[in-house]
Amino acid sequence: MGFNVGDQFASYEEFQQALVGYEKSTFVQLWKRDSRTLAAAQGRCPNRKFNSAIKFYELTYSCVHGGKKHHSKSTAGLRPNQKTFKIECPFTLKLRANPEGTHLLVTKFDNIHNHNVLECLYNVMPAQRRLNKEDKEKAKEMLKVNADTEKTSAASFVDKFRKGFNHERHSQHRYLSEIKVKVFLLEDSTQRHRQLFEQSTRRYC
């Protein structure tokens, strides 16, 4: 599965489905490097008509290892040796509204990488390790149950089930604490997490 110059998509959702399928089948993580919405385009060309389902006039995607490097002015020169994902990978995918304004049209597809593309590396990237919506809801529900348990008086159970009850609460508390840590780590996008990713690539491959 891939893209070809001239491919068209009737909606942004249709394109997103193709994009996700491409990422999973090729083990490549992409990110939206640049975009221009239909509203911005119509500001320049008020008389032009667009299919609202395509949402964007222009889109540019890069490999997670390519694209722009962002430098913080506040820490300029203070942390010169910090590593990031960016290694100037040349992969580029560009789309724009077709002349009729009805579809997103692929105008450029440079399927070239300057690094290894491996399933083991793809699987340990933050985007793949992040909890999905269903898992997040389960974690929230478990945390809520734990909070409710803390509020509930256990006096009537202590005499009869003291040992077992305390052990159960201790195990539950420890398990929920682990969930909190995992949610934090999987949501985290700091430099420490990027360094952890680099260590993980050596461990999983």
Number of domains: 2
Largest sheet: 5 strands, antiparallel
Can you count the beta strands? 5
- How many H/I helical runs? 7
Question: What is the gyration radius calculated from CA atoms?
Answer: 24 Å
Order of helices and strands: EHEHEEEHHHHH
Which geometry do the CA atoms define? globular
What is the helix content?
40-55%
Overall pLDDT metric: 74
**Estimated structural class:** alpha+beta
Low-confidence stretches: 185-190
Taken as a percent bin, the fraction of beta residues is 15-25%
Termini distance?
A: 24 Å
Protein name: ZSWIM3 N-terminal domain-containing protein
Organism: Littorina saxatilis
Pfam families: ZSWIM3_N (PF21599)
Domain ZSWIM3 N-terminal: 4-115
How would you explain this protein's 3D organization?
The chain has about 200 residues and is an alpha+beta fold. The protein folds into two domains: about 10-115, no CATH class; about 135-205. Helices cover about 45% and strands about 15% of the residues. It has seven helices and five strands, in the order βαβαβββααααα. The chain has helices spanning about 10-25, 40-45, 120-125, 125-130, 135-150, 155-185, 190-205; strands at about 10, 30-35, 55-65, 90-95, 105-110. It has a five-stranded antiparallel β-sheet with strand order 1-5-4-3-2. A hairpin with a 6-residue loop joins strand 4 (about 90-95) and strand 5 (about 105-110). Helix 5 packs antiparallel against helix 6. The chain is globular and about 55 Å long. Residues about 185-190 have low confidence and may be disordered.
